[in-house]
Structure formats: C-alpha cells, structure tokens
Amino acid sequence: MSPSASENKNELSLLALPNIMDKNFQKEEFTEVIKFTPPLYKQRYQFVKDLVEKYKPKKVADLGCADCRLLWMLKFCRCIEVLAGLDICASVMKEKMHMLSPLPIDYLQPSERSLTVTLHHGSVAHKDPCMLGFDLVTCIELIEHLEESELKKFPEVVFGFMAPSMVVISTPNSEFNPLLPGVTLHRHPDHKFEWTQAQFQSWALETAKCYGYSVEFTGVGHPPTGMESVGFCTQIGVFVRKYPQTGESVQSEEPIEAVYKTVFKAVYPSLKDEKFLQNAVVNEVIFTAQNIKRHLMSKHEEYDDAPERESRFQPSVDYFSDYLRKLVVDQTMEPFVNGNEVYIPLVTIFAFPKVNQLCGTFEKLCKLIAGKVTLSSDGSAVVFNTEHENEED
C-alpha cells in the first residue's frame, strides 16, 4: 500500500509503488498462464539450501519462519548444528512445529553431529540476545509484511545487532505482477508494499553500506522469453559482512533483555552425547560379536550331514571367514570356543571399521562397554554362553 505524502521521507519513499509500469505491460494483454515448476516457494527454499550447502554455516536463523517448512528442509543439511525460527504469529508455528521434532530413527541411529532446533515468538523489530552468533540469517518473503515503523527498525536489528556473516532477503518484484493473473496491487492482502527492482536494490545497497556489508542481487521465477527486463518474480539480495565481528562490537551496548518467547525446542540425539554414543557402541559391539560367534558355530557344524543348509549359507560364511582371517594377525585376536562359551577378543571387535569409527581408541571402547556387555574375567573378550541355545536346538 502506497504511503501518504507526509510519509514520503528518505528511505520511506521506497515504499511507494511505481507510477509508470513498463510499456510492454501497460496496455498489452498477456494471455500466457505463468506456472512455475517447481512452485515458487520451493525455488526460494532451494536457493537457501544451495547456499547452505555451498558455505556450510553451522548456525542458521529464519526470520518470519511461519509454517517452518524452510527450517524442516534445512535440518537435513549436515553442516547445521543450530536452527532457530522467529515469527510474530505463534499459532502458525505451533500448528507445524511437530515437523521439527526428532523421529524414532533419529534415536535408533543418532547422527555424528549435534542439532538443536528452537522456535521463538516475537517481532523482527525487537532485539533479543538469543539471536546473536548466527552465521546465516534468512528473511524469505518477510519485509513486505512489515509495517512502516517495523521496516525502519529492521536493518538495525538484523545487520546492526544480530550481525551474521550472511543475510538472505527475498521479496516480490512488483514489476512482475502484471504477468500474474488476478494480481492488481499486491500479491497478498497482508503485504504492506511491494518493490520494483530499483526500489529493492536502492534500499539494499544503502543498508549494506550503512552496516558494512556487500550485497549481490539475483532471484527465482524467470520471466517469459522476450520479457527479461521485468526481472525475476522473486527478487533476492545476498548480503555478506565485509569484516569479522569483534567481541567489543557485540558488547559495546547495554545488555539486551530477552523479549522473545520460546515456543518449541528440540535437541536431537547425537553421538557427541556420551549416553547416545555408549548405546550405539554397545549395540555395534554385540552385533559384531554375534556375527563372529555365528561364524565360529558354523565351523563346528560344517561337517554335519546337512548339505542343503551348508550350500545355502556357505557363501556368506566364506565371505565373513575371509574378512575375519585378514583381521586376525596373531593368536591373541583369534576367537575360540571353550565348552559352552564363545570368546571374542575385544581387539578383534575393535578392528571392525564401524566399531573403530565410533570409539576412536581401544581404551574408549573398553570404557564405554564396561558393565554393559558380558566380558571374560580379565576383560579382554566378549563372552557368549551357548548352553541355552544348545538346549533349544
């Protein structure tokens, strides 16, 4: 919506919609139905995801996160360890925030990285210390929803206070609107304004200059052939901070009180957490030891009068036997059967890649499985008792 004449000051003049549209669209009827594939919102999210995959930020905040779809998409980027969302509408976030919760598979197979996802209820016009320290801040289709007073404060909050290494801002390009069926003024009833390419670039360049950022312009949603001057349907500015932020600049102001309300927080299971690492190591040790035990027991049965069974299982046994033979370089690593007990040396188990990768050192393996796995009296081997198995047979 265009501001009144009294509001037409400095940067606020950028809010005014252009009075003169491109001659190609003033009178000419455009009959082609524009359909974006993938849908425009997915292209915007993919743009952010590609940027994340390229620059590998560890901490990412999405301002105006709404239904959390972008956050959900980003949680699968393995470089990210902290995700935060902020929106003025708590009900929309609460309706969809379950998407960000860990799944059962996340507990069964914890990731090597840590991941914490938090949602906050609040305004981008207010400062809150919980938004400090982020590498990337995204504002996807946000600024056009801001009131005039909020837009004034927005640059200081995002670029001055939060001061991330990179900021991505997308907003509708009003020059594209005549190509969209049914759009007369704005694309959404809640939009307070929509900028031309010149207006957005003017605002972005001024903001970048004021806060020590560089900015490059791009977009998603290509115009039809022959109408390239219209620009992208969604225009995007990628801001990069020119100079590293110093501790002094962060602490120069008076301490900021928390004003946002946290409405959701999820801490994902991670192998960096000792309890999840221990559980993963114990399961892998037992799994590996049982495979070795089955191999040993098959050796005892290989001369039994069971040709069908032998021919059916021999290939996998031979493969495992070859692999185990390569690992066992001396007698101390040799698994053995003593009566009803099977002994699998820990050094042999540790030699298996997955166990080795999880533990890193043999000492850590011993520490993690202590009291969780049945060991020999000297603690050098995993022990299985086959007496009950024989009775069942």
Automatic annotation (TrEMBL):
Q: Which Gene3D superfamilies match?
A: Vaccinia Virus protein VP39 (3.40.50.150)
Q: Point out the coiled-coil segments of this chain.
A: none
Per the record, what are the reactions this protein catalyses?
A: small RNA 3'-end nucleotide + S-adenosyl-L-methionine = small RNA 3'-end 2'-O-methylnucleotide + S-adenosyl-L-homocysteine + H(+)
The lineage's top-level taxon is Eukaryota
Entry cofactors? Mg(2+)
First-level EC class: transferase
- Enzyme Commission number(s) from the entry: 2.1.1.386
| Protein name according to UniProt | Small RNA 2'-O-methyltransferase
The organism of origin for this protein: Willisornis vidua (Xingu scale-backed antbird)
The gene for this chain is HENMT1
